[in-house]
């Protein structure tokens, strides 16, 4: 998505209306600086199609006020808000002007003063309210601020969002009950308040909540506006009470602005265009129904159908003049030409007076992020990952239990097989190596739901400038290594000593690298695919191909060239080769075997020795390390693309 703010360089700018230093942390209530937000002729279109999602929308919201965007589903509310929040989608193209205090800000500068709350709260369910806010504070301010000051900030934020009594309550997830839906929305807002953003944009914060929780969210937005924040929110189907609390509103339909102005002037505006609301209906319901195009019929049948139901008192009357889409376009034009459209002069005032970036205030926006820095953020994220591992039973304890169970099953089935050397026993020892790799590696697939849950949290935090992708991924790798170590250790100990295999160290390293590569591969899939089902299904397909080309089921040169190439990038092929070398390399005799005289014969049979390729145990380890690094790099690229 291109930057509609005029592609201002990410350098420094002069703020005339407010002196703002994003590198200093203010722990009082309200933002560090106030910003008016104006946008002119915003057009959002799909780059590959002749389709506009937002069509020339303009408006302005002053600091200390709340603007509510309303309209039927699919009208472009969320798209407009994401555009104003600078959330980029690669397939969308944006044109128009977005100004803060009549100044064009670059993408990095806007990220410092704007926070976006999506419909999905994207919070980590195993942590309490207090722990969530404390982690957020450390991500923003690092360790240059004392714990006493941070705790005071947390108390103020919890008081602001009404969660003081729930400070010790977990957010809640699959394993734990926790906050209600309304409390989670308020906590999501509280997370953004930790950075004291000047502009807060919320996408349908009341959707899915009961009337009481919705009123609480609306009251919270009003309180934040009184503190000086600029609040912009989309509201779906507001109740009459919530409607009475709104001051500035925008109605949208089919990507067009249908009305923008004070809520108490909507009635007079509708009267001016001869759309008088019946006494028994609210203005917002009547107007939303009028501009909806979701259930369009032909003009004659719709008019007759509506008239019949109006006479029976079943539905509210909706004025229908011809095709519904044409009607909506006509209403949009009526508003643009009406005296109620006070924003039609934005392009000749705000845009004309817009300041270009200045080099004079070099300290105003010295960083592209409002985060504490890479090292403090990595430490904070690592600390959070450690807490998540021990608080979430599905992350560590279930997997250790799986490893122990796997070790017991293999140890029972192949008990003492390493001391035997007949052909059946040799095949059994090979099966232990291959089966261990297979089942340990498949354990990584079970972590896809947790990976996708954390990805949603990452996208929200990264989009709001809490940290860099490199910090997140480094902390992820640093916790992935010891977790996979513990899981592999639990199973390998039982397998090696119950099955009487030759060497624990090399067997364990083989299994550990197989698990690490599997984890890295799943992290990549979790970053690429949107749904759990798609990620799981395609990952299993790749795993199957990797195992089929590993050389255990069919020796490598007997595999068809159609899929043999997969073996060269299969981590399980190199794991299998390393495991077989661990078990048979250096064995000088096999007295009970008729076919094989020593370990080298077994390795040659499976084309591990004497057929080119990597010829040592440590060489295979090196390839596995390189593959793991490759998966991490691919994950980094995928996450970077998602967070832009």
How does this model look, in words?
This protein has helices at 77-84, 107-113, 129-141, 147-160, 181-193, 211-226, 240-245, 266-272, 283-291, 299-311, 324-337, 374-391, 397-413, 423-442, 448-463, 469-499, 504-528, 532-548, 561-567, 571-584, 599-605, 617-642, and strands at 37-46, 51-61, 66-70, 92-100, 114-117, 199-203, 230-234, 248-253, 256-262. It is α/β, with parallel strands linked by helices and 644 residues long. The chain folds into two domains: 37-343, P-loop containing nucleotide triphosphate hydrolases (Rossmann fold); 374-642, no CATH class. The strands form two sheets. The chain has a six-stranded mixed beta sheet, sandwiched between helices. The protein has a three-stranded antiparallel beta sheet with strand order 2-1-4, covered by helices on one side. A hairpin with a 4-residue loop joins strand 1 and strand 2 (51-61). Helix 17 packs antiparallel against helix 20. The relative contact order is 0.10. Residues 5-28, 297-322, 345-352 and 356-369 have low confidence and may be disordered.
List keywords for this structure.
2 domains; elongated; Rossmann fold; alpha/beta; six-stranded mixed sheet; 9 strands; 644 residues; three-stranded antiparallel sheet
Indicate the radius of gyration in whole angstroms.
31 Å
What name does CATH use for the topology of the largest domain? Rossmann fold
Number of helices: 22
Question: Mean pLDDT score, rounded?
Answer: 81
By CATH, the architecture of the largest domain is named: 3-Layer(aba) Sandwich
State the share of residues found in helices, binned by percent: 40-55%
Low-confidence stretches: 5-28, 297-322, 345-352, 356-369
Number of domain units: 2
**How do the strands line up in the largest sheet?**
5-6-7-3-8-9
The coarse overall form would be elongated
The profile of the biggest β sheet is: 6 strands, mixed
Structural class of the helices, strands and pairings? alpha/beta
Distance between the termini: 8 Å
What's the CATH superfamily of the largest domain, by name? P-loop containing nucleotide triphosphate hydrolases
The number of distinct β-strands equals 9
- β-strand amount: 5-15%
């Amino acid at each position: 998505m291109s930057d509609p703010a005029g592609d201002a360089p990410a350098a420094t700018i002069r703020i005339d209306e407010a002196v703002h230093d994003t590198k200093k942390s203010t722990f009082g209530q309200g933002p560090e600086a106030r910003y008016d937000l104006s946008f002119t002729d915003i057009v959002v279109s799909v780059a590959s199609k002749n389709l506009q999602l937002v069509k020339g929308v303009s408006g302005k919201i002053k600091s200390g006020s709340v603007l509510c965007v309303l309209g039927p589903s699919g009208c472009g509310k969320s798209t407009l808000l994401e555009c104003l929040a600078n959330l980029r989608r690669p397939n969308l193209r944006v044109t128009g002007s977005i100004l803060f205090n009549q100044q064009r800000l670059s993408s990095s500068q806007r990220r410092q003063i704007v926070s976006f709350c999506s419909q999905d709260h994207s919070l980590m369910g195993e942590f309490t309210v207090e722990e969530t806010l404390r982690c957020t504070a450390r991500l923003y301010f690092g360790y240059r601020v004392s714990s006493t000051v941070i705790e005071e900030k947390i108390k103020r934020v919890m008081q602001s969002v009404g969660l003081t009594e729930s400070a010790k309550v977990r957010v809640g997830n699959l394993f734990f009950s926790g906050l209600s839906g309304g409390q989670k929305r308020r906590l999501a807002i509280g997370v953004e308040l930790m950075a004291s953003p000047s502009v807060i944009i919320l996408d349908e914060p009341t959707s899915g909540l009961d009337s009481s929780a919705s009123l609480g969210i609306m009251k919270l937005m009003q309180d934040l506006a009184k503190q000086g924040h600029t609040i912009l929110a989309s509201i779906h189907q507001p109740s009459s009470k919530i409607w009475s609390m709104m001051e500035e509103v925008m109605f949208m339909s089919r990507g067009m602005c249908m009305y923008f102005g004070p809520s108490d002037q909507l009635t007079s505006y509708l009267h001016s265009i001869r759309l008088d609301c019946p006494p028994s209906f609210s203005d917002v319901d009547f107007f939303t129904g009028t501009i909806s195009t979701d259930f369009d019929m032909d003009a004659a049948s719709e008019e007759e159908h509506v008239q019949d139901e109006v006479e029976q008192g079943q539905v509210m009357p909706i004025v229908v003049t011809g095709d519904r889409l044409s009607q909506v376009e006509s209403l949009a034009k009526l508003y643009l030409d009406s005296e109620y459209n006070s924003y039609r002069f934005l392009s000749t005032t705000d845009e004309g007076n817009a300041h270009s970036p200045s080099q004079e205030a070099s300290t105003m926006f010295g960083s592209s992020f409002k985060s504490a820095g890479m090292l403090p953020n990595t430490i904070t994220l690592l600390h959070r990952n450690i807490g998540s591992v021990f608080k979430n039973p599905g992350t560590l304890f279930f997997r250790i239990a799986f490893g122990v169970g796997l070790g017991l099953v293999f140890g029972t089935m192949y008990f003492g097989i390493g001391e035997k050397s007949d052909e059946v026993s040799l095949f059994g020892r090979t099966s232990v190596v291959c089966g261990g790799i297979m089942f340990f590696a498949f354990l990584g697939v079970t972590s896809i739901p947790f990976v996708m849950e954390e990805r949603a949290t990452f996208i929200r935090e990264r989009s709001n400038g809490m940290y860099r992708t490199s910090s997140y991924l480094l902390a992820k790798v640093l916790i992935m290594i010891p977790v996979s170590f513990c899981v592999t250790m639990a199973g390998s100990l039982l397998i090696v000593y119950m099955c009487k295999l030759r060497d624990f160290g090399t067997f364990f390293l083989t299994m550990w690298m197989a698990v690490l590569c599997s984890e890295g591969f799943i992290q990549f899939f979790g970053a690429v695919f949107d749904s759990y089902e798609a990620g799981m299904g395609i990952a299993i397909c790749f795993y199957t191909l990797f195992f089929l080309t590993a050389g255990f089921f069919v020796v490598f040169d007997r595999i068809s060239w159609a899929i043999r190439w997969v073996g060269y990038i299969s981590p399980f092929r190199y794991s299998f080769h390393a495991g077989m070398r661990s078990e048979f390399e250096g064995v000088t005799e096999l007295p009970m075997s008729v076919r094989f005289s020593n370990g080298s014969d077994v390795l040659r049979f499976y084309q591990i020795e004497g057929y080119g390729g990597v010829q040592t145990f440590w060489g295979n380890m090196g390839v596995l390390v390189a593959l793991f690094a490759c998966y991490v790099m691919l994950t980094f690229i995928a996450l970077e693309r998602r967070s832009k």
